[in-house]
Amino acid sequence: MRGARYRLWQFWRLITQRLSPDELTQVREWLPPSLFDVFRQMSPAEQHHAYSVRHTLAAQGQTNPDLLAAALLHDVGKSRMPLAVWEKVAIVLGFRFAKRLATAWGSREGGSRWRRPFVVAMQHPAWGAEMVNAAGGSPTLVELIRRHQDRITPTEDLYDLLSALQSADNSN
Ligand SMILES: [Fe+2]
Ligand SMILES: [Fe+2]
Fold it and tell me: At what angle do helices 21-30 and 44-59 cross, to 10 degrees?
């Protein structure tokens, strides 16, 4: 886990950056129409984050189509419950300074409104996997999204793809 200051800087970029029209055209070429529609449900800043994760992987020479699509779509579950800026700050600080509590708050849906950010932080991989599955994504793509923030072990099938996705996600 990087320092809180790095996380807050990363967070500031996450909420202020936008895709250019050319970048958006590229994404439209990379994804089939049904998945492009899902991509567009994300906030502009989240679309930019997703594009950056894909860019990092492509620059590393990654060519697996499910991995590159997962880069673009891994956070689409966040569009199910859009958060205010202060709620996004709460996620960064909560998981940094009160990880066990934040995990408990986020581990089930419902409950008090102030728990919402932690619910989104922990549930968006499952929500995104459902959305991409419903839009016709491949089983591998759906699994990469569902597991994109799980703790993974080298013995599992998708380890190489998941670890590449997680490290690109963390550096963007
Ligand atoms: Fe995520
Ligand atoms: Fe992400």
Answer: 70
